[in-house]
């Protein structure tokens, strides 16, 4: 069972002429969920502003499994997470809360960045410990099947 990060209600501004959520807003909703986990790892918005260290996405793989429409509520969950010394690899799932069906997934490869230099940086030991502790606690909830980017981590 993936780790719930957030629940969002789909608003009219996110829908298109097909009367469902436009594909760009799926990424926005996923990004709202990603910010929650990045903040836990001390590399989200607060870190970007205060330490000038954050992450930048370099590759994604997104699937659109079932329509999401205005006023639907969706749960965004972390289905997988791993890292190496400078990369994050995670997969998020979006489920229609009322129907309890998978609406979409996104798999992400991100780099840890020193925003002052605009260069890739190694994670600090403290952040590696936070991530490893999180993985240890939640590994039973993760699903590594059908991942596209596992080979890109340098372990």
- The CATH topology label is Thiol Ester Dehydrase, Chain A
The shape, in one word, is globular
Q: How far do the termini sit from each other?
A: 26 Å
Sheet of most strands: 6 strands, antiparallel
Strand content: 35-45%
Reading the helices and strands in chain order gives EHHEEEEEH
Computed over alpha carbons, the radius of gyration is 16 Å
Classified by CATH, the class is Alpha Beta
Can you offer a commentary on this structure?
The protein is of the alpha+beta class and 155 residues long. It has one domain: Hotdog Thioesterase (Thiol Ester Dehydrase, Chain A), CATH 3.10.129. It has 3 helices and 6 strands, in the order E-H-H-E-E-E-E-E-H. It has helices spanning 23-40, 45-50, 125-138, and strands at 3-9, 53-64, 73-83, 87-96, 101-114, 119-120. Strands 1, 2, 3, 4, 5 and 6 form a 6-stranded antiparallel beta sheet that branches. A hairpin with a 3-residue loop joins strand 3 (73-83) and strand 4. The chain starts with a strand and ends in a 17-residue tail after the last helix. The model has no long low-confidence stretch (mean pLDDT 97).
């Amino acid at each position: 069972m993936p780790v719930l990060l957030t629940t969002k209600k789909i608003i009219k501004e996110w829908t298109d002429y097909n009367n469902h959520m436009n594909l760009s807003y799926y990424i926005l909703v996923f990004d709202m969920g990603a910010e929650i986990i990045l903040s836990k790892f001390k590399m989200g918005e607060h870190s970007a502003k205060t330490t000038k260290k954050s992450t930048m996405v370099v590759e994604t793989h997104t699937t659109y499994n079932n329509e999401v429409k205005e006023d639907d509520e969706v749960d965004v969950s972390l289905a997988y997470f791993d890292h190496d010394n400078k990369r994050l690899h995670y997969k998020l799932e979006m489920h229609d809360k009322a129907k309890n069906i998978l609406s979409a997934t996104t798999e992400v490869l991100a780099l840890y960045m020193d925003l002052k230099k605009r260069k890739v940086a190694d994670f600090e030991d403290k952040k590696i410990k936070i991530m490893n502790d999180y993985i240890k606690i939640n590994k039973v909830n993760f699903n590594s099947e059908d991942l596209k980017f596992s080979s890109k981590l340098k372990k």
